[in-house]
Amino acid sequence: MVKYVNAAVAYKTLNGLICVYKPPCVPVRQVQHTIVTNLCRDLNALPDRPQEKRVEIIGATNAPMTVKLVPNYADDPLVCGPRYTHGDFRCSWATHLGLFTSGVLILGLNEGTRLTYQINVARPTRAYKVHGQLGKATDTYFWNGKTIERSTFSHVTRAKIDRIVAHMQSAHQKTMFELSGLHMDSQTTYDLASQGVIRPSNSKLPVIYGLKCVHFEPPNFTLEVQAVNEYEKYLWTLIHDLGVQLKTSAYCTGLQCIRQGKFTLEKALLRKHWQLDHLIDNMDSCRELIEEHEHLIRPKSAHLSV
Amino acid sequence: MNLNLFRKSFVVVKRICNVRYLYTSKSNLNFTVVNFNEKKENDALEYTSEDLSTVTPYFPQSFNLAAYVNSSETLQNLVHLNVNLSKIEKNPIIVEKILKLNFEQDIKRGLLFIKDFVNGDDIGNFLTKNPLILCEDVEDLEVRVNYLKSKQFEHNEISRIITKNPFWLMFSTIRIDRRLGFYQEKFELSGNEVRLLATKQPRLITYNLQHIQTNFFVIKEEMGFKDDEIKQLLLAKPRLWMMNQKKILERFNYIHNVIKIPHEIILQCPHILLHRNFKVKQRHTFLEKLGRAQYNPTIENFVPLNALFELTDIEFCKKYAKCHVDDFNMFLKTL
Questions:
Q1: B77 and B35 in one domain?
Q2: What's the whole-number mean pLDDT along residues A36-43?
Q3: Residues of A in contact with B65 (CB under 8 A)
Q4: What is the mean pLDDT of chain A?
Q5: So what's the ipTM on this one?
Q6: CATH topology of domain A125-260
Q7: Model-level pTM?
Q8: Burial zone of B69 (CB within 10 Å; 0-12 exposed, 13-18 middle, 19+ buried)
Q9: Domain Pseudouridine synthase II N-terminal, which positions (chain A) (predicted)?
Q10: How many structural domains does chain B have?
Q11: Of A62, A77, A79, which has the smallest distance from its Cβ to B69's Cβ?
């Protein structure tokens, strides 16, 4: 960890991406606000630049005047306010996470806001852990809704859930080609499809690339989803649909984003570590990662790359 | 101004000159030229021996105090007292009043009065919070302090009250008396207990009474504390009555209904209600996962309720969770 000589030097390094762990039930905007507030607090606590001086020429104009160098009160932090405020930081997210989703969140600070746009347009795959529970359905498909149905689930086995999950995954392959922007019967589409999975050309429809049940312990189960363009409510409905197809009912109990492109949970900063020195370290490691994997921000082909 | 006048007269002279030129001889023309030269002596570009130090550039209305601070002695003195002018200027009404004050005449007396009760280091903070006290009449302030003295508050208690709650002295004795009476009646406090409450949390006395009523309802009816327990809670943690009622209920709900801590134990450690729910929640779920969430002192492997919010995460892991802090961090990333 580097000790910074003064706040200006530290501020200049704050250009880039940071990867934080968003807690559940905290909106992304609040995460941004907390991080910027913490940065301002830490920067203002660092040694400040010397206070400006001010030249004062006083005395009658028809006699020799005196020139004095006096401290400029207008430059005192007590008068003009703290040196760093919210207005000094631009902060944007690469991909939005819903209110109830926790997990990896990529934010861009200052110059890094440009990178977040590029990452967003490159449409990286995101991996989620979706926790569900069998035997109950709610009106919002999530734990916060009202129960609308209860059912038995003793007939559900691991094999059954795996079969249906595999079926759901293959059904999504079709949307993937529909979103490629090419004619379905053309040679180009065939060539593209023969080489593997492809990225969607726009952000209109969610595409699921992988769906797997990683944990099954009735009534609780966990799915691991690899997807692009998905959103919170879509993943909730996925669990609901799964429940229907299993001839019972299910609702989502939790949603966690475990990977965004190359950014994994290990990199993500916990809420207690949203401080200047940790954030700068995190920014450095994110920069290295971006340099290593250029295709994250500038993909060269339509094929999906992690 | 001067230049404009000069230009006007020049035009007039020129016209006269043209008209005269048509009708009269050369001598008249000469006269006009001389007149022109006379005017030139008042040119703005000419040197002058007058003292112009009183002339200042045009100064438009400013949106902050920084524009005035270099020329205002009063503001400079306030800065020397560590008053944060950038916070004061958020309210233009206050700024207007402060700018009109003269340090020697208006401020000094009030300041010397406050100095008896507020510590030198805290005076900047005090004036930042409540700059309008400088506009208040010193006699009024004396009356309000005398009221406290008449109610048998000690000098150090009074100074604590005033330091902790800069707005106390803005309230008239009638209002303060009514409010102290309200607390005494509502919570059935004795005289000593009222004094203790006012000294412990002076902000509570001048707080919005509607808010206090709401929180009283939340703590009594929704949380289900008994009257004597409420009194105990009030004297231990008066800040509970100033908190957001939804937040406090959410915290209580988690502690009482999820962790299953009875009212009596919460009363022994009311501090837990002042901490944000996520902190308690993550430590409790971690202990639960480890099988160490055992808050009953009569059974072995007892973990005190303090452990859920006190200490840093490293100390918590070492002392109560008996694991490395990295394990705790790993766990936090699964929430």
A1: no
A2: 94
A3: 79
A4: 90
A5: 0.86
A6: Pseudouridine synthase (3.30.2350)
A7: 0.85
A8: buried
A9: 99-227
A10: 3
A11: A79
